[in-house]
Amino acid sequence: MKVADAVAPGLVGLAVLGGWEALVRHYAVPAYVLPGPVAIWQALLADWPLLAGSLLVTLRIALLALALAVSLGGLLAVLFAQSRWVERAFFPYAVVLQVTPIVAIAPLILIWVDDVTVSLLICAWIVAFFPVLSNTVLGLNSADRNHVELFRLYGASRWQTLWLLRLPGALPFFLAGLRVAGGLALIGAVVAEFVAGAGGTGSGLAFRILEAGYQLKIPRMFAALALISAAGIAIFAVLSLVQHLLLRRWHESALKPEG
Amino acid sequence: MHFPPPAPSPPLAPTTLVALDGVGKRFASGTQALAGVDLRIGEGEFLAILGPSGCGKSTLLRLIAGLAEPSEGVIRRAAARQVGFVFQDPTLLPWSDAITNVRLPLRLAGFEREEQEARAAQALAAVGLAGFERAYPRELSGGMRMRVSLARALVTRPSLLLMDEPFAALDELTRHRLNDDLLGLAAGSGMTVVFVTHSVFESVYLASRIIVMAARPGRIAAEMPVDAPGENGAPRPPGFRTSAEYAGLCREATEALEWAMTQ
């Protein structure tokens, strides 16, 4: 991204934060109703050891869930792509898992699984794996007809066709799914933490938000919220970079317009 | 006169690479794409299949390649033949550079990596693309992509090269240059080429024999030998494209095609 591309959103952000601070000060809004950005920043600095620890806990769950989503989602996709029958038989259940709200399943998982970390991980994984699965299945089934014939003509084995044609062809689809899954893994982790609530290990960012809410430490609540957003943005940025690096030599989506 | 009934599957004449007898193809949709095609493809010949769009010439080529099965008739092929196929589009793998694309058939056949690289580099040089080994398809022009595709078809040193309107999407100058290069490559290798086209001019320029097809159902309507200098795949002499002899042959082929279209 060029520097000029970052100027406009930066200015908008500064204007919003400045206006927010000015309004809070002008109307003397108490910090337990709506703290200004300065107060939130101060809370962030003051509570940094506490919040940083919680950030690491939440990030760890989200990233582990993402890794699981990639490996299991990718593996399932390859299995599904082996036969239409397998895909037709199992795909609906993946959809059921996806459309059932995680808030509704999370309490059950927390009851069934003793280890809270594991149950949080399962929740985040359920939310994150579907985009990886569905995109990769689509990608694996999108191999160009002529390419498939070419491989057939030269006597390619099933394994060669998968490895040299279908998997590389599915890569752009997989990466698009991965970018969505990255954000969802974080959402899944946070939602599961909320459901686990005070009964949980009580150390993630969502728990800090609940805790700060009970204690009316609203600036800390906002600080934790800001950290969750920042973590989401960072995950998205890293995955976008991965996508760009892997596709820049050959895929249309990574091409710069000529001239 | 009394003729004995033909043997069920007589052996191919030694100079015949592929033989089609009464071949027809009906698609699952019920469309009769081809009917009653009898054809002998001889060793070392340059055969053009000429016909209007939708006359089944691509289907015929796919049957010869073994990419589809005939619904009627028999296709017999000489043993130990290696087939190369050039599609209408270059059909290169966009995620692989030129040399990786060219060595694909060798890779699929399980050759050693070093031999793959050496032969692919050789094939790229033969089509005039030495120095472009590491270029990705999208970094190449349409003509260069088609050359990579041609190199990929040649890398297995095929005895039979099948080409499905490979140059139709290219500009005229590029097409002329590729025509000449193709003739040079074919002459040097002794391979048989079957070239599908809808261009009268291209078929006369390239071929030693032209099969003219008619549509609905697709069938062979006429056959025309091309008696011109440099026949049987050798390059045409300079100036042939503007000669009266070429013009005469083109007129003859055009008349055959027009007649076929009224059938």
Characterization of this structure:
The complex is a heterodimer of chains A (259) and B (263). In chain A, 81% of the residues lie in helices and 0% in strands. Chain A has two domains: 1-30; 35-254, Orthogonal Bundle (MetI-like fold). With 259 residues, chain A is an all-alpha fold. Chain B is an alpha/beta fold and 263 residues long. Chain B has two domains: 42-68 and 77-81 and 159-263, P-loop containing nucleotide triphosphate hydrolases (Rossmann fold, 3-Layer(aba) Sandwich); 93-156, no CATH class. In chain B, 34% of the residues lie in helices and 23% in strands. Chain B has eight helices and nine strands. In chain B, α7 (200-206) packs across α8 (244-262). The mean pLDDT of chain B is 86. Classes of the chains: A mainly alpha (259), B alpha/beta (263).
Outline:
The complex is a heterodimer of chains A (259) and B (263). Chain A contains 10 helices and no strands.
> Distance N terminus to C terminus of chain B?
32 Å
How can the largest sheet of chain B be summarized? Answer: 6 strands, mixed
- The class by helix and strand makeup of chain A works out as mainly alpha
Q: What is the residue-mean pLDDT of chain B, rounded to a whole number?
A: 86
Keywords:
heterodimer, A: 259 residues, mainly alpha, MetI-like fold, 2 domains, flat, B: 263 residues, alpha/beta, 6-stranded mixed β-sheet, 8 helices, globular
SSE arrangement:
The complex is a heterodimer of chains A (259) and B (263).
Chain A: H1 3-26, H2 37-46, H3 48-82, H4 84-99, H5 102-112, H6 116-140, H7 145-153, H8 158-196, H9 205-214, H10 218-247
Helix pairs in contact in A: 2-10, 3-4, 3-6, 3-8, 3-9, 5-6, 5-8, 6-8, 8-9, 8-10, 9-10
Chain B: E1 16-26, E2 32-42, E3 46-50, H1 57-65, E4 72-77, E5 83-86, H2 98-102, H3 104-108, H4 113-126, H5 142-154, E6 160-164, H6 172-189, E7 192-197, H7 200-206, E8 209-214, E9 219-225, H8 244-262
Parallel strand pairs in B: 3-7, 3-8, 5-6, 6-7
Antiparallel strand pairs in B: 1-2, 1-4, 8-9
Helix pairs in contact in B: 4-5, 7-8
